[in-house]
Amino acid sequence: MKSSNDILHLGAYPLVRMRRNRKSAWSRNLVSENSLSVHDLVWPLFVQEGSEQCTPIAAMPGVNRWSIDLLVQQVREAANLGISAVALFPVVPAHVKTEGAEEAYNADNLICRAVRALKKESLEIGIICDVALDPYTIHGQDGLMDGDVIANDASVEVLMKQALCLAEAGADIVAPSDMMDGRIGSIRMALDEALFHEVQILSYAAKYASAFYGPFREAVGSAQNLGKANKFTYQMSPANGEEAIREVALDISEGADLVMVKPGMPYLDVVRHVSEHFSIPVFAYQVSGEYAMLRAAADQGWLDWKKTMMESLLGFKRAGATGVFTYAAKEVASWLMDHALHHTKLR
Ligand code: PBG
User: What is the set of domains in the chain, with CATH numbers?
Assistant: First the structure.
């Protein structure tokens, strides 16, 4: 960053006119510092049991839960559009949720069946699977409970089993989103011991205890399980930015290949901070509540859906994100394709 004294050397109005470079579309295109490409996109998808099932999510208009057969079609379309990866989240039937989250490492669970069905298609798209216990615990916490505390080390043992199970099913990337201490190192060792050296780890390294996850918890059905409880003893406080640097540093030292900051838009300062501090791909997650806000305002006619979505995604890139998780990925990919055909930029 140049100091304000440098302004003197760079000149000033009326010799300098910042608007000159903005005078035409080609010039604005020429000088644009950041851009959004379809390759930057990761599409989170909800998977449910059954066949030919597509269930809408009330707080996220345009987002559905898919049974595996329909999921395969959706992912095929995403691959054809050039989306880099999908991130899968299971809607786990209430009757298989337990205190010990045993279903998380059942090789025949919903998510493993989905991964195997997708892998059979040999699509050019990455499959990312969440590692956390909240879909599988009756209390909706990401780890196991011992009385009223979330037991860190006992949870890590189960997370290792879950990650192994996902790798065996064919997941390309396992993404621990649970925020237990030490889980990245333990999962890396468990994977390597089982000769899954090639399975990448995307750590949700700086994951905040956020109210913006509300619609997601409805979507996967963990909201009732969680009730009035919270995740404050493991997810980060929204008041802290420096702490994100320690979290990311630890996860890199434990073997993370990629890191995540989550949520997205309220935490762009953290994305910038992490991306400047470390040489590792940094992802941002435009979470369910962010999607819901834009969608709801657009549905009221108060905001332009396409323009506000594109502007917020470009904001992630400007902040230093390598890529973005967004529920709008498929729609965004088709907009990007249209604009590429017409040689125009969306902004
Ligand atoms: C659970 C998980 C959550 C999200 C992704 N994985 C919710 C939570 O931590 O309670 C939120 C994603 C979103 O809101 O879009 N481990």
Answer: 37-346 (3.20.20.70)
